[in-house]
Amino acid sequence: MLEFAILGLLHESPMHGYELRKQLTTKLGAFRAAISYGSLYPTLRRLQAAGCITEESVAPAADAPLLTNRRSRVVYKITAEGKERFQELLGSSGPETFDDPGFGVHFAFFARTDSATRLRILEGRRRRVEERREGMRDVLSRAAERLDAYTLELQRHGLDACEREVRWLEELIAHERSGRPPQVTIPSNPPPDPPER
């Protein structure tokens, strides 16, 4: 999945490692923890060995301040083979795209994915989350009396999260079937609670 995300970002523009890591964290933030250099650079080396990306050294600007790092930077660029590989990964909609990491990465590039593939991934993800939800309901119905209050609350929280995600996926599926993009609303910060008296 990291390979897919890197190719997707480099398809947009060449980047050096620091910028690539920052963009990956921004793009995948809700679905994946921060990307470490320990996973980024080995993946970049594998992509380079496969001919999917190239690197070139870019000299710093001549007018860079003396106190800044004046070493040349390595910039990564996608190749024609990399663009083909990205398109191949973009069109995949197998079971690996229904799990948390796979779904998150594919969803981040949905704007470049065809509608039929988006719909298959959304429906597969919904089935996966519904299965998880039913498993949690089963655990709660069979073991609720044996669980302490905090474990029970954690299970209830997980069940609520699954139910919210199923509703969200159903909305996305309805939009996809109608041919309309989802309506995005950015929540505003709620007003602070009044001070207690």
TrEMBL record:
Source organism of the structure: Planosporangium mesophilum
Pro residues: compositionally biased ranges: 188-197
Domain Transcription regulator PadR N-terminal: 6-88
Domain of life: Bacteria
Region of interest (Disordered), ranges: 177-197
Coiled-coil ranges (or none): none
Record InterPro entries: Metal_resp_DNA-bind_regulator, Tscrpt_reg_PadR_N, WH-like_DNA-bd_sf, WH_DNA-bd_sf
Gene3D superfamilies with a match to the protein in the record: Winged helix-like DNA-binding domain superfamily/Winged helix DNA-binding domain (1.10.10.10)
Family matches, as Pfam families: PadR
PANTHER family noted in UniProt: CONSERVED PROTEIN, PADR-FAMILY TRANSCRIPTIONAL REGULATOR
Name of the featured protein: PadR family transcriptional regulator
